[in-house]
Amino acid sequence: MRCSAALAKVRGAAKGPPLPMCILYLQDITYLRIPVADTPEVLIKKHFKECINFIHCCRLNGGNCLVHCFAGISRSTTIVTAYVMTVTGLGWRDVLEAIKATRPIANPNPGFRQQLEEFGWGSARKFSIWMPLGQTMDPSV
């Protein structure tokens, strides 16, 4: 299984509504597209559960997952940080430091950093309950 999680730039309302969140299956690759703008006021954390579940399912099925956005600096880094926090129990600062060791330009915007900090206060621990069991997350949690 090959997977790709894309965080697409959201276009302004004047150019039409943003594309919906969707999962596409093309060329034996499963894609999850999340339309998220890279601005501090955007609530990226509302997508954490779905993205973490998507990445984890890919890994459980022996696949690789490419998480990407336009520049690979803020949005994709935020999603990967949330996932690693969930599976390791590490705090966001430690995870971000590890990511920066291989991708020095990784730098979530201040609003996303705040949301990662809040995520670490409880949701990451709650999500991690399913990870050791090799299960996907219950969407109702």
TrEMBL record:
Compartments reported by the entry: Cell membrane
KW Cell inner membrane (keyword) present: no
Gene this protein is translated from: DUSP15
Example GO BP: signal transduction
Classification via InterPro entries: Dual-sp_phosphatase_cat-dom, Prot-tyrosine_phosphatase-like, Tyr_Pase_AS, Tyr_Pase_dom, TYR_PHOSPHATASE_DUAL_dom
EC main group: hydrolase
Keywords: Cell membrane, Hydrolase, Lipoprotein, Membrane, Myristate, Protein phosphatase
Pfam hit, one: DSPc
Protein name: Dual specificity protein phosphatase 15
PROSITE patterns reported in the protein's UniProt record: TYR_PHOSPHATASE_1, TYR_PHOSPHATASE_2, TYR_PHOSPHATASE_DUAL
Lineage: Eukaryota, Metazoa, Chordata, Craniata, Vertebrata
